[in-house]
Each structure stands twice: as C-alpha cells, then as structure tokens.
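Q: Now give one record:
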Amino acid sequence: MNLVRPVPKDVTNSVVESPRRTPQKCQRPTELILRRPASATPYHGRRPPEVSTPPPSEHIEFNQLKEMLLKKSGDLCYNFERITATKDDFIDEGQLGAGTCGVVKKMRHKERRDLVMAVKQMHVSSTCAVENKRIMMDLDVVTKCVGCPNIVKCMGIFFSMSEVWICMEVMSTSLDKLMRDTVEPFPEYVLGKIAVSIVKALDYLKREHNMMHRDVKPSNMLLSSSGDIKLCDFGISGQLKDSIANSNQLGCIGYMAPERLEKFKYDVRADIWSLGISLVELALKSFPYKGSQFEFAILSKIIEEPPPKLPNDGRYSADFCSFVDKW
C-alpha cells in the first residue's frame, strides 16, 4: 500500500524537513522532573512552595496579557454568534479528562441547550509564577489560533484572578485513548491523515505566530466526531527568535528530540521529531522506548541510541517507513 497523499504543498519546508538524528528507546514517558528522594527534602516529601519573581519586562508583558484576557472574559462565539455569559450559566455534565494544569469538563448552557463546550478549568496560583505562566501561555495561544482548522477551536474564556476557564469545542477522544481502546494498530492511511493534520497545525503556529508547540504527543492530538485530527494543549509553547527556541522548558521526555535534551537552543524540527515518535507509537500500538523504569534511562537512550523504526514485516509500505525515518 502506498503512503496516503504526500504532505500538501501549502505546508512549508521549514516544518517538514528534519535531519536524521542519532538518539533513543524506553517505557511510556512521564513529565521530566529531577528531584531529590522524599527523605532528602526538608518538606517531608512535599516540594516547597515555588515562589519566583519574573524579570521586570516579563512582569509587564504578563500584566498586559492579563488585562487583555480580562476584557475577553465571558465573550463566547458559538456558531458564528456572539454570546455574553457567566460561569453560572452552565451546568457541569461530567469530567472529560485531567492533566497537570487542571481538569476538562463537559459544560452545557442552561437555556441554550445546544451550546455544549469542553471546559478546561485551571486554578491561578498565588505563589507559583511558573505555573501561572503556563496557564497564560495556553490562554494566549488558543485564543489566537481560532482560524486554524487543525487546532482545537476556542469558543471563549472565563478569566479571574483565582480561576481560568478555557471553553473549547467538544472532541470525541484523544489518540492515546483511542489507541488503548482499539484492538488493531492504526492503519497506514489513518496515520497519514494524522501526520498531515499535525504538520499543518505546527506550520500554522510557526508561520502565523512564530511559535512551536513543544509537547507534541498522542494525548495532545484529539479526534472529532467527523474524523478531524486537531492539536491541543499549548501550556509550554514557546516563542521563536530568528526561528530558534531559547528555553529549557520541558515537556514529556519520551517524545522530546535529542537536541532539546542536549542543547539549550533548538527549532521547530524538535516538534517534528515528537510527531515521528508519536506515529511510531500509534503504528505499533506500543510506546517505542520500552524497558526502562527511570526517566534518566529514557533520557540516555534517546540521546545515545538510534531512533526507533517501523517493523519491516510488510504491514507498512516502503514509502511510509521512509517517511517516518526522515523525522
């Protein structure tokens, strides 16, 4: 079977092209947090409150963004109609998911029963500037990207000094859940559709907003009821300067490109690497870096071992295997 259609010409080469690196292998990844054993901490296993003071320029930018978001609070867009609402106008219909920053719930408008949203609820911290920055970044990016069909649509926000709601279109499931719920691995034509959709989303972020995602993985790829694949969760997205990211902000270690682990500077090709690892996982129905129980071992294998490959057993075409190898 030939690989589905090649990546469309409207996707720029700066996103698609990625040189072959020599890293990888391990067990399903987690967030990379290097910490002392609980017995070695003065807080009896609890991390001390993370109080940080951002530089003056960052503080000014944060306040400007906060003021802008406060003005947008309660202004929703549903089916091209502007609706002014409050949090009290919605009924909680149950939890859809949970992450490091908060929970996602299904919410329905009390009077407009057809108005249903997936609401990401996050609490603003009074002590953790890093966590607040992540929340603000997620808010900023998702409200800017309403014009991209490959990014989960934001219908509006509710913003206060203690809590943030991001109101999004309801999606059917994430690709990691779908992978666990299905018996067979994803067929090649489905993987091709996933690849094209995510590359388009990454290209949009780079071309329109000069940003990269930095946390591309199956759990951040959502499937709609109509079969569309969309990218979500922009909490650790990064601004690029001269096409280079200059930050050590970490995501999920098992999907991170070697240059993000070894160097301080990297570019959008690191997101393409993460997409490649995700495609291999979905194709094999198994995370490609198995066997290690510690994050440091995962890190070492990513840096020192060759990248994972698709099996040469006839299940996937030569074109598709070559396509994945180029990530």
About this structure: The mean pLDDT is 78. The longest strand covers residues 90-98.
